[in-house]
Automatic annotation (TrEMBL):
NCBIfam families: xseA (TIGR00237)
GO molecular function, one term: exodeoxyribonuclease VII activity
Organism: Rheinheimera tangshanensis
Catalytic activity, as annotated: Exonucleolytic cleavage in either 5'- to 3'- or 3'- to 5'-direction to yield nucleoside 5'-phosphates
Protein name: Exodeoxyribonuclease 7 large subunit
InterPro entries: Exonuc_VII_L (IPR003753), Exonuc_VII_lsu_C (IPR020579), OB-fold_nuc-bd_dom (IPR025824)
Length: 450
C-alpha cells in the first residue's frame, strides 16, 4: 500500500464535502423546523424533519438576512439548499440560501415544476409562438362575465376600435372549478373558430387566486390553441404559466385590449420579433458560457476560503453555546447553595425569639387586663357601699319620708319661727320639687312642758 493511499480524517472529510457539493448543486426540501438556534453571530442552525428522518441545516447571516421570516420550532417551511459536510465533526448538513413558508413555497415549487416540464417539451419556446394577426375583426375573451377584467377590456376596445366585435366565453376565474371551466371555454372558442384572437385572463390577486391559470392542462391547451392567444392575467408583476405558453403576454387586461387594437399590431410585431431574437441570442450565449462556468465553479469550490470560514464560524457558535450551558449550570448550582444558606439563616434568625417574647408580652397584657377588671369591680362595690351609707344620712332620705326644708330669701334654712315675718316669702323643698309660700301668721313656739 503506497503512502498516497492512506487518508487522514481531514482529507477524507474534505473530499467527501467536495464530492457532495459538486454532485448536488441545489435542491428544495420541505419539512418541520426543530432545535432552532439563532446564534449571536447572526447565523441560524436548525433541523428539518419529517415523520421518519431529519437533517441538520445551517443558514448563514449573509443568506438569512434576505429571508421573509425567522423560522420557529414546529413550523412547516420550504428551503433551497446545497449539501455540504461540516468537516470538524464529519457530519453532512444542508446550507440553506432561501427560506419561505411551506404553503406558498409548495405552490411556487409546483409552479416551477410545471414551468420546467413545459419548457422541456418546448411549449415555452419563442419559435413556436404565433404572431398576432395584423387585421383583427373579432376578439374572443375567456374570463368571468361579471369581473373587472371584462369591463376594462370592453372600455379600451370601445375607445380604440368601436367597430371591433367582442365575443365572451364566460367561465369562473378563481376556485376549484375554475380550471375546468377555463379549459371548456377555450375548447368552445377553438371549436367555433369565430374570432381572430383570443384574450385569456382576469384581474390581479394572490398566487392562490391566480392558480387556475397555472393548471397544466389549461397551459397545454393554450399552447396548442390554433387561434393566436394573449394572456392577460393579473397585474404587471403577476406571472402565471398561461403567460409563458400564450403567444403574447399582456401586463393587464387593459393592456391586452390595447395590443389587439388595430393601431398596435405593427409595433407589437416589431417588439415581439426583437424579443425573440434577444432570447435566442441569450440562450446561445448561455449555452456557450455554461462549460466555462462549470469549470470556474469547480475551481472556486476547491479554493474558496469562505466555506472554511463558515465552518470556523459554525464551530465558534458551537463553543459559545457550550459556554452558555456551562454558565447556566454554574448559576443553577450557586442558586441552590444560596437557598441552602438562606434556609439555615432563617433557622438562626432572631425573629423566632422576638415572636416568643411577643407571645409572652401578649399573655402579660391579658393578665394585666384581667387584674384591672377585677380591681375596678372591687372599687365599684366599695363605691356602692359608701353611696348607700351616704344616702342613709342624706337629707334627701329625710325628705322622702314626708319631711320638708324651708329657706328664706337668703337661702338660709329656717329652723325657728322667730326668723320669719308676716308677708315674707319662703321656699320649701320637698322630696320631689319645691314651692314658694307667703307667711300669713306666725305662731310662737309652745312650751315644751305644756
Amino acid at each position: 500500500m503506497s503512502q498516497a493511499d492512506i487518508y487522514t480524517v481531514s482529507r477524507l472529510n474534505s473530499e467527501v464535502r467536495l464530492t457532495l457539493e459538486l454532485q448536488f448543486r441545489q435542491l428544495w426540501l420541505v419539512g418541520e423546523v426543530s432545535n432552532f438556534i439563532a446564534a449571536s453571530s447572526g447565523h441560524w442552525y436548525f433541523s428539518l424533519k419529517d415523520q421518519a428522518a431529519q437533517v441538520k441545516v445551517a443558514m448563514f447571516k449573509q443568506s438569512n438576512r434576505y429571508a421573509s421570516l425567522q423560522p420557529k420550532n414546529g413550523q412547516q417551511i420550504l428551503i433551497r439548499a446545497r449539501i455540504s459536510v461540516y468537516e470538524p465533526r464529519g457530519e453532512y448538513q444542508l446550507l440553506a440560501d432561501m427560506l419561505e413558508p411551506a404553503g406558498d413555497g409548495l405552490l411556487k415549487q409546483q409552479y416551477e415544476q410545471i414551468k420546467a416540464t413545459l419548457a422541456a417539451e418546448g411549449l415555452l419556446a419563442p419559435e413556436r409562438k404565433k404572431p398576432l394577426p395584423k387585421k383583427v375583426q373579432k376578439v374572443g375573451v375567456v374570463t368571468s362575465p361579471t369581473g373587472a377584467a371584462i369591463r376594462d377590456i370592453i372600455t379600451v376596445l370601445k375607445r380604440r376600435a368601436p367597430a371591433l366585435e367582442v365575443i365572451i366565453y364566460p367561465c369562473l376565474v378563481q376556485g376549484i372549478q375554475a380550471p375546468a371551466q377555463i379549459y371548456n371555454a377555450i375548447q368552445k372558442a377553438i371549436s367555433r373558430n369565430e374570432v381572430d384572437v383570443l384574450l385569456i385572463g382576469r384581474g390581479g390577486g394572490s398566487l392562490e387566486d391566480l392558480w387556475c391559470f397555472n393548471d397544466e392542462q389549461v397551459a397545454r391547451l393554450i399552447a396548442h390553441c390554433p387561434i393566436p392567444t394573449v394572456s392577460a392575467v393579473g397585474h404587471e408583476i403577476d406571472f402565471t404559466i398561461a403567460d409563458f405558453v400564450a403567444d403574447v403576454r399582456a401586463a393587464t387586461p387593459s393592456a391586452a385590449a390595447e395590443l389587439v387594437s388595430p393601431d398596435q399590431q405593427q409595433q407589437l410585431q416589431l417588439v415581439k420579433s426583437a424579443e425573440q431574437r434577444l432570447q435566442r441570442s441569450m440562450q446561445s450565449y448561455l449555452r456557450q458560457q455554461q462549460p466555462r462556468l462549470t469549470a470556474l465553479v469547480h475551481r472556486l469550490t476547491l479554493l474558496d476560503p469562505a466555506r472554511r470560514l463558515q465552518q470556523q464560524q459554525q464551530y465558534l457558535d458551537e463553543l459559545q453555546l457550550r459556554l452558555q450551558n456551562a454558565l447556566l449550570r454554574h448559576i443553577d448550582k450557586a442558586a441552590q447553595q444560596q437557598q441552602f444558606l438562606q434556609h439555615r439563616l432563617q433557622q438562626l434568625t432572631p425573629l423566632v425569639r422576638i415572636k416568643q417574647q411577643q407571645q409572652k408580652l401578649s399573655q402579660h397584657n391579658h393578665q394585666l387586663h384581667q387584674s384591672m377588671q377585677q380591681l375596678l369591680k372591687q372599687k365599684q362595690q366599695q363605691w356602692l357601699l359608701q353611696s348607700s351609707r351616704l344616702h342613709t344620712v342624706s337629707p334627701l332620705a329625710t325628705l322622702e319620708r314626708g319631711y320638708s326644708i324651708s329657706f328664706d330669701e337668703q337661702q338660709q334654712v329656717i329652723t325657728d319661727a322667730s326668723m320669719l315675718q308676716p308677708g315674707q316669702q319662703v321656699k320649701t323643698q320637698l322630696a320631689k320639687g319645691h314651692f314658694i309660700a307667703r307667711i300669713e301668721q306666725i305662731s310662737a313656739p309652745s312650751d315644751a312642758t305644756n
